[in-house]
């Protein structure tokens, strides 16, 4: 049976998009040409498929400008919009496609999010990252970093941990209640690949909804909640870095994370802890690292 | 012959995009669902097709934020980015698809651009819109507004005209050289549908390249030039409005307009004018309006 052109596309100039793509000059590198050419194609196909009106396009232009206007050194609304549309999570999947194509899956990477800080201090194993008052439950988190291939411990790996406080805010969003680097810390694994620290059982929280991301979520009739999570970034010179979020298994937003970052192997189980005067809960979490070539 | 899935797409979670689209709640209206669903699909397909890396995605996020950060009441960088990618011109084509589907084509609409002003004053036919010093050639522009169907004159139509000065700048970009509403004016057609005014033979100019649009044009190895043009917006209560740009036929940038707004029937011919002490050039330009319903 012969195929035919989609009727809704055929009424428009069939050469327009290729003309725009072909306007790129000879000094454009091949990767830039590929990425921007594909972007132009999809932007145009989107507009033709929905027959975008001038009013809708202008609404989009105003939205685009508003994203940057509310952003500053402490607020990245562009990243948030990208997250709400699932793009950061998808890019994460793309970057780690090789890992997902193997039978054995190393610890999943997931989105970095806008709350990582380059300034988190090194702390000793067994230290607490809790520096300010809170209403959460203190937990002892510990585990082993291992080589994905050999399953041997990786000594000297850096486990960078960050989390929101029990009010759902990170330190730099909440300077009146939290000191700098509250609930942040870097831990170096010992000779057995072990790390350990005290942190909070995490709390679900809402993305800020006073900007374009809130407008977009409202348009889509979606809640702004992220399931409770702890962020980890694990690195070692000889291994590919892993950026993770881990989620308590009983969180009500696991199935509807507003940034689509939950993966099955990132759901963890906090258990009651006995015999530790500092913590009521315990969490064991091991991390597998893939060697660099 | 059986079709098969594109290999480069099959390695990714085939349900992810539909899950993001299906996250929209029941209160999302059908048009919003259609537009945002299609947008999500194309954004995701783009990322998968080029296998967008985290670094490239983050470059895009920074670019997105920069667009709004340089925009203000007098600068709409979001619209400019959209123009450089051909989107405004495409949306214009979509809105006017019905006109292009008829055999007889009424005066083409084209992009409004960011330089229209709601404050342009009414002037009398035969007046000049030139209020400030310039280095251009004064031209007498005149024509008739007619009904597309009956070809009869349309009396009382408003012809709103705006153009850049000979330095390539519009009045509000150039307050040190131009008074407010220099090279802007609204003219009402007389009983014969006629309008007339003195304006400048237009000059090609560059889009501002000190912001994200300049970055994007540089990446694409494209020049930032627009062919010389005069903007028109023609309206009448009984007719569909037309927004136009007209271009001198000898302009060097007709084939490579950086916002892709040139259409064949918008290319016009300025001719030497004799017997008018105010102008050296003449331009006749008629406009056909489509009746409402």
From TrEMBL, chains A, B:
Catechol dioxygenase N-terminal domain sequence ranges: 30-100
Superkingdom of the source species: Eukaryota
Domain Intradiol ring-cleavage dioxygenases intervals: 112-289
GO MF annotations, alphabetized: catechol 1,2-dioxygenase activity; ferric iron binding
Short name of any one Pfam family annotated for the protein: Dioxygenase_N
Keywords linked to the UniProt accession: Dioxygenase, Iron, Metal-binding, Oxidoreductase
GO biological process, one term: catechol-containing compound metabolic process
InterPro entries, alphabetized: 1_2-HQD/HQD (IPR039390), Catechol_dOase_N (IPR007535), Intradiol_dOase_C (IPR000627), Intradiol_dOase_core (IPR015889), Intradiol_RC_Dioxygenase (IPR050770)
Required cofactor(s): Fe(3+)
Keyword Metal-binding: yes
Family stated for the protein in its record: Belongs to the intradiol ring-cleavage dioxygenase family.
Name the record gives this protein: Catechol dioxygenase
Originating organism: Lasallia pustulata
Organism placement in taxonomy: Eukaryota, Fungi, Dikarya, Ascomycota, Pezizomycotina
């Amino acid at each position: 049976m012969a195929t035919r052109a989609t009727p809704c596309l055929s009424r428009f100039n069939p050469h327009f998009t290729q003309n725009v793509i072909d306007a790129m000059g000879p000094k454009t590198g091949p990767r830039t040409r590929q990425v921007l050419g594909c972007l132009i194609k999809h932007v145009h196909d989107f507009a033709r498929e929905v027959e975008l009106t001038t009013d809708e396009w202008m609404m989009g232009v105003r939205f685009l400008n508003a994203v940057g206007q509310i952003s500053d050194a402490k607020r990245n609304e562009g990243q948030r919009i990208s997250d709400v549309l699932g793009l950061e999570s998808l890019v994460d999947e793309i970057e780690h496609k090789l890992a997902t194509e193997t039978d054995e899956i190393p610890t999943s990477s997931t989105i970095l999010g806008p709350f990582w800080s380059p300034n988190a201090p090194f702390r000793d194993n067994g230290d607490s990252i809790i520096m300010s008052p809170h209403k959460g439950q203190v937990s002892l988190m510990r585990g082993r970093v291992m080589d994905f291939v050999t399953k041997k411990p990786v000594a000297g790996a850096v486990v960078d941990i960050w989390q929101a406080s029990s009010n759902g805010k990170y330190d730099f969003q909440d300077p009146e209640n939290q000191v700098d680097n509250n609930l942040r810390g870097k831990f170096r694994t010992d000779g057995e690949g072990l790390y350990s620290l005290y942190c909070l059982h995490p709390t679900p929280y809402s993305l800020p909804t006073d900007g374009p991301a809130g407008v977009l979520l409202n348009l889509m009739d979606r809640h702004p909640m992220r399931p409770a999570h702890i962020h980890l970034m694990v690195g070692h010179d000889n291994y590919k870095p892993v950026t993770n979020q881990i989620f308590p298994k009983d969180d009500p937003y696991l199935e509807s994370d507003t940034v689509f970052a939950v993966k099955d192997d990132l759901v963890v189980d906090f258990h009651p802890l006995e015999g530790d005067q500092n913590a009521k809960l315990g969490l064991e979490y091991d991390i597998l690292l893939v060697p660099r070539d």
